[in-house]
Amino acid sequence: MNPDTLSFWRRTLCLIYDFLLFLAIWFIASLIFIVIVQDTSFAYFRPIYQFYSLSIIGIYFIWFWTHGGQTLAMQTWKLRVVAQDGKALTLRQAITRYLFAVVGITSFGLGIIWALFDRDRKFLHDRLAGTRIIRVEQ
């Protein structure tokens, strides 16, 4: 195990905090979507709404990860996501990390549980995207 690996619980608590922020953003984005669409009974509402929701949340995470490497929750917990070599994430890495995180979290949290067994204690989406979370010293 890497000596600078952060604890599973610190990263998980940060993830829970990010989830709470995600809920607030999702609520506001959903309200805007429903006001614009108005008729939620049409046949294609659900898939369009799901795509819209994933896109809005993706924009939030990807923008923060590529502009400083920290979401609001990561700033609070003094964490930063970086590429494996310690450099800032590219747009491609951020998108890959987001998509793998969505799959890993919605698969009964297996992408998070993965960290308990990973040699470097990485979440599965970090392992697959070639990223890691570091502590920010201030």
Q: Would you write up a description of this structure?
A:
The chain has 6 helices and 2 strands. By secondary structure, the protein is mainly alpha-helical. The protein has one domain. The longest helix is centred in the first third of the chain and has 30 residues.
Helix-strand blueprint:
Elements: H1 8-37, H2 45-66, H3 72-76, E1 79-83, H4 91-106, H5 110-113, H6 124-129, E2 131-135
Helix pairs in contact: 1-2, 2-4
Keywords:
138 residues; two-stranded antiparallel ribbon; 2 strands; elongated
Low-pLDDT stretches: none
Proportion of helical residues: 55-70%
What form results from the Cα inertia axes? elongated
Instruction: Count every helix, treating DSSP H or I runs of 4 or more residues as helices.
Output: 6
Strand order in space, largest sheet: 1-2
pLDDT averaged residue by residue = 91
Give the helix/strand class.
mainly alpha
N-to-C CA distance = 25 Å
Total beta strand runs: 2
**What are the secondary-structure elements, in order, as H or E?**
HHHEHHHE
**How many separate domains?**
1
Q: How many whole angstroms does the radius of gyration measure?
A: 16 Å
User: Could you describe the largest sheet, including whether it forms a barrel?
Assistant: 2 strands, antiparallel
Give the percentage of residues in beta strands: 5-15%
